[in-house]
Amino acid sequence: MGKRKLQNSTPDVMSLETTENDQMLDKDYKGMGVVYVGHIPKKFQEKEMRSFFEQFGDILKLRLSRSKKTANSKGYAFILYENEDVAKIVANTMNDYILCGRLLKCQFIPMNRVHKDTFKGAGRTFKKIDWQARNKDVHNKVKSTEEQQKSVKRLLKKEKLRRRKITALGIDYEFPGYASVAPKPTKKITFPEDDEEMS
């Protein structure tokens, strides 16, 4: 929520301190209420949350915060209720409620303290990116001649620094290293064109 300072990824209480430059939702969301829910169990996803919290009233938006890297839940969410009084009841009722072995932390947040990007992407299904497969494809990608030469230069540079460190330590040690097997860049040979036409 904007530039609020959080003590950890799932704080018990949200800090409601905001800066003057924060843009809030109070203009277009009058009469509605937002509830912060923390310490959410890992298996309690958007579908389960909506089904559970809709028993109190109509939910307009729900955003479960997720990691962009792993797509796993960060353990806290924001729920936008159509009625402010309902949101206050949810916060009071569900605070310190034990769910799946975890103690929920709920807090009502006034609209003039809710950042405009709080529910950004709330209506979209979070797609998990297979970073391992993506990195594998990048690693196994066939390199061009120019990319191979850059890799060789980088390896030779590292090896040169390593040799300097060994020498600086007073160690007399010689090893062939990568320089002995590194492919040498090919030289283009140009042949002068004959002025006389060959018969």
Structure keywords:
alpha+beta; 199 residues
Question: Could you characterize what this model shows?
Answer:
The protein has 199 residues and is an alpha+beta fold. The chain is 27% helix and 16% strand. It contains 4 helices and 6 strands. The protein has helices at 46-53, 84-94, 131-140, 145-168, and strands at residues 33-38, 59-66, 73-81, 98-99, 102-103, 105-109. The strands form 2 sheets. Strands 2-3-1-6 form a 4-stranded antiparallel β-sheet, with helices on one face. Strands 4-5 form a two-stranded antiparallel sheet. The longest helix has 24 residues, at 145-168. The N and C termini lie far apart (83 Å).
Cα shape: elongated
Overall pLDDT score:
79
Terminal Cα span: 83 Å
Strand order, main sheet: write it out: 2-3-1-6
Please give the radius of gyration in angstroms.
Answer: 30 Å
Order of helices and strands: EHEEHEEEHH
